[in-house]
Amino acid sequence: MFNFFLYLYLLMLKAERLQKIVEQVAKDNKVILDDLSQLLNVSTDTVRRDIKELSDKGLLKAVRGGAIVGSPVHPHFKERQHIDTQQKKVIAQKALEFIKPGLVLLVNAGTTTTAVISALPKDISLTVITNSFPVVSILEDYPNVNVFFIGGQLNKPAFSTIGYETIEAIRNFRADVCLLGICSIDLKVGITGFTYEESLVDRAMIETSKYVIALSTYDKIGVSDPYYVCAANAIDALITEKDPSLADLDGFKDAGIMIK
Amino acid sequence: MFNFFLYLYLLMLKAERLQKIVEQVAKDNKVILDDLSQLLNVSTDTVRRDIKELSDKGLLKAVRGGAIVGSPVHPHFKERQHIDTQQKKVIAQKALEFIKPGLVLLVNAGTTTTAVISALPKDISLTVITNSFPVVSILEDYPNVNVFFIGGQLNKPAFSTIGYETIEAIRNFRADVCLLGICSIDLKVGITGFTYEESLVDRAMIETSKYVIALSTYDKIGVSDPYYVCAANAIDALITEKDPSLADLDGFKDAGIMIK
DNA sequence: TAATTAATTGCAAATTTTTGCAATGTTTAA
DNA sequence: TTAAACATTGCAAAAATTTGCAATTAATTA
């Protein structure tokens, strides 16, 4: 028989658990795995998985044996919750081929580029220039990555900077590779975006980079948005989650774009 | 038999131990292996390995018999965040008096300025210009605050930007009020800081602001650090957690500085 | 409603990390 | 030079983590 109170109890326990863990960390600056396991009446495995979940959200930092307070940066800026889609993981893996130690990378703001940065090996040596707060927050933990942040007006919904100063700052750099997460690309229309300000930033990034890699899920191909960024052949490579030999992509290959 | 010290040892996470070592080094400029071994209830071997690990990360310099400060780096933001919290709250409340809607605020990076920003009413209308990531992340939730982020080289331990571009960007603004968290202030020596790069940023901020408010815990008064920022009378107001009528502060009042 | 899919949780084996100890080598200072 | 202090290395026990698996439960869909 369905037991409503048992149901409620179990549901609350889940919510409580995560909340209690966060509270404990806030109070003591740390939590210990075995203590929590006892306190919350679940196995250490479950607590470990809870901690990992909270750690992914940026609410604390998982360490061996428990957890400690995380970085003071707002969890929103970490934005890693929504990036773990299968498609983005595939794109991220493919993009890693292009990223060799020593390069100067210019990275725009978006969940796809964030996924690529998350996938970088912890010890890689790079220079990364970006206007994305989530990218910076990931690279905080990379000791050999020199990060340069592009200032400007805070663009709250995208966790990035935009505007005149951002574009001027971009023009002062010369990057080896531009990692460009895009909204949409069409062979004839070119690359287009949702917002005017971001399209300007993207264009500046493309113009100042030697090699441009566009990152896009397959469903954004052949689509267009209101604001023009650049012609399709302004990019050097296009990475999607699909097999590059797909016939749909032949037009891009003919235009001299490497498909991965 | 119940062993209290074993119990303590079991409760101490390795990550905590590493933090404590860094704290000790920051406090005393040095640590001695055997002392730490006693204090932390682990063998000297373990302390030695900890020190090596921290040394690899550049957080201190391993020497025979212990460790000393590496490059004169400021302790990490995370370590400073939870010290003197009560005093910082008092300072934050006093600082609110100065922050009127509509102002253009220039805010430097530090745990004290972060505390002030946290204390702002959620609906205030402001323009905030800052090079501090924690400040931006707090202001993300303030719908009526227009935020401008100053780009530059990422300064990982302080969660801020520094360097040539940062200073150039600061010079393009003209702020009403500068909120300046400071390392130390002395009437004769002036304001001084712990790192060269940050002292340059602070100086640029002061120069471009109409009204400068220095924020300092009382114990930083009459103290000096290696890098000169500006003369004491370059600031307009000084806020500490203590009563402004304290005789120790009379010198500042005579120099025309408002004490709060 | 029933069947399927997805999520949660605990268990256990394999693996990795941590830690103290002891043997050996190196540096320091009287 | 020699004795003491310190560092390095390898090793083994203990602890923590990873991984795959199975049982249970929740959510979705036909």
Describe this structure in words.
Two copies of one chain form a homodimer. Helix content of chain A is 39%, strand content 23%. With 260 residues, chain A is an alpha/beta fold. Chain A folds into two domains: 4-70, Winged helix-like DNA-binding domain superfamily/Winged helix DNA-binding domain (Arc Repressor Mutant, subunit A), CATH 1.10.10; 86-259, Rossmann fold. A seven-stranded parallel sheet of chain A has the order 6-5-4-9-12-14-15, with helices on both faces. In chain A, helix 2 (33-40) crosses helix 3, helix 5 (86-96) crosses helix 6 and helix 6 (111-118) packs parallel to helix 7. The N and C termini of chain A lie far apart (54 Å). Mean pLDDT of chain A is 86; it is low at 1-11. The A-B interface holds A 29-30, 32, 61, 63-66, 68-69, 71-74, 76-77, 131, 133, 136-137, 139-140, 143, 146-154, 156, 159, 161, 165-166, 169, 172 and B 11, 13-16, 19, 57-58, 77-78, 81-82, 114, 131, 133-134, 136-141, 146-154, 156, 159, 161, 165-166, 169, 172. Strand 7 (152-155) of chain A pairs antiparallel with strand 6 of chain B, so a sheet runs across the interface. Chain A binds a DNA duplex (30 and 30 nucleotides) through helix 1 and helix 3.
